Amino acid sequence: MTSRINRSLDQDSSSSSSAAEDGSQDVLSLLMGVFDDHNDETSPQVRAPYSCAHVSGSPSLHRRDVVPSHFLLKIESFASLSKSPITHYRSEFEAGGYNWEISIFPNGDKTNGGEDHISVFLRLIDTNLPIGWEVHAIFTFFLYDQIREQYVTSQDNANVLRFHAMKTKWSIIKYIDLKTFNDSSNGFLVNGSCAFGAEVFVVKNTIKGECLTMIEDPIKCTNTWKIGDFSAITQDRHASQPFFGGDYIWKIVIYPNGFGEGNGTNISLFLQLDTSSLPPNTKLFVNYVLRLKHQINGKDFEQKANNVFFSSNGWGFPTFMSLAKFKRLDNGFLLNDTCIIEAQFEVLGLIKQH
């Protein structure tokens, strides 16, 4: 096993197994919300390309015990809200370093075909954002099942939404039909009260790109290092003289009494790159063999690996060979207090970072 030498929101959730088992047969077809990308509540409905309506079969019903992270609204006497002259209720909250506004239409957004449903809108309301800004976020809306004491949504609604100056609002026009919502056996509206929740997780763009260019005919490099007076080595780490391999400078490193998991029981061998010979933002994809020469019968001992070299931290083998095997004279690896180590390697490719 190779190793480097260094010198220098989970949330528990549970899903229902089937509609028949949890008594919510009707709700398997609910939460068929369609994300609509319009800014004006009176504008024509436009379906997002990843609309749940485009998914074959019923959406997967997702249940969990954990309270939604960012917004929770309990409404008592939902019927009174439905009969009031207002078309929707709105509230503000913060998530991911941004300010948001959520709107709930108890009778649906009728101007966009939401009759007989509950509609939900999410708007980014920050006004001090820089020119050309974009925010990508995952929006999930929940209903609370008061009978089973779980928060319910559809996994199909957890899409990455793109907000920018020309599109600050997304909506789910038909989140749930009112017939299903009003049926008290489903647990969403019980004794006139209900609860909604929301989570908005902002996707931070911290991506780092790489480009691997393979070398068609890599040059094989070999360096042999003879260590005399091995028993006189007092330092934990002993390195060879620098040598050129291809266009780069390397060293072989030995830990006579082991390193890491091999400490005290093994000799450890590593191949180390001198990063002063490496161009900026470049890594090397290297295939290498570290070999301990048998000085009696030529039956050398070796270990092979391939790794990406990009810093002065070497790659190699903490448990290259046990100290007992190495020091036993008739094994031929340490003879007359001398050992011979060989490094053979080839740079298979160059990796450029962007």
Automatic annotation (TrEMBL):
Top-level taxon of origin: Eukaryota
Listed InterPro entries: MATH/TRAF_dom (IPR002083), TRAF-like (IPR008974)
Low complexity: bias regions: 11-22
PROSITE patterns: MATH
Region Disordered, residue ranges: 1-22
Pfam families: MATH_2
Residue ranges of domain MATH in the record: 68-200, 220-345
PANTHER family listed in its UniProt record: MATH DOMAIN-CONTAINING PROTEIN, TRAF-LIKE FAMILY PROTEIN
Name recorded for this polypeptide: MATH domain-containing protein
